[in-house]
Amino acid sequence: MKYFEPEYDFIDIAKDDLSKSIDVIMLTLDAENFLLKSLYSIYKEIPIRKLFVCDGGSKDETINMLKKFPRI
Questions:
Q1: 9 contacts: CB under 8 Å, gap ≥ 6
Q2: 69, 38 Cβ separation under 8 angstroms
Q3: 47: pLDDT confidence band, cut at 50, 70 and 90?
Q4: Chain mean pLDDT for the chain
Q5: Can you give the pLDDT at residue 3?
Q6: Residue 35 confidence (pLDDT) above 60
Q7: How far, CA to CA in Å, does 33 sit from each of 6, 7, 30, 60?
Q8: Which of 26, 28, 41, 63 is deepest in the core (most CB within 10 A)?
Q9: Residue 21 has pLDDT above 90, yes or no
């Protein structure tokens, strides 16, 4: 499976004003094939104060990919 290649720039709707943002919990396990698409959508649609990720022991690039996103 090919990785998601964004067709638009990363949008973080909460980056300038965290006063109305929320905490989000996300579960992952070897999610590299769809993780970028999920994160791009989440940050674009949800004002995230903090994204808590519970990883089930991924053996792929999931953890490294997560490190590139803000407030995780």
A1: none
A2: no
A3: very high
A4: 92
A5: 66
A6: yes
A7: 13, 16, 8, 9
A8: 28
A9: yes
Find the mean pLDDT for residues 14-24: 95
Per-residue HEC secondary structure of the chain comes to CCCCCCCCCCCCCCCCCHHHCEEEEEEECCCCCCHHHHHHHHHHHCCEEEEEEEECCCCCCHHHHHCCCCCC
Report how far residue 9's alpha carbon sits from residue 62's, in angstroms, rounded to the nearest whole number.
20
Give residue 40's identity as a one-letter amino acid code.
Answer: Y
- Token pair 């674009």: residue: 44
User: Token pair for residue 52?
Assistant: 């808590």
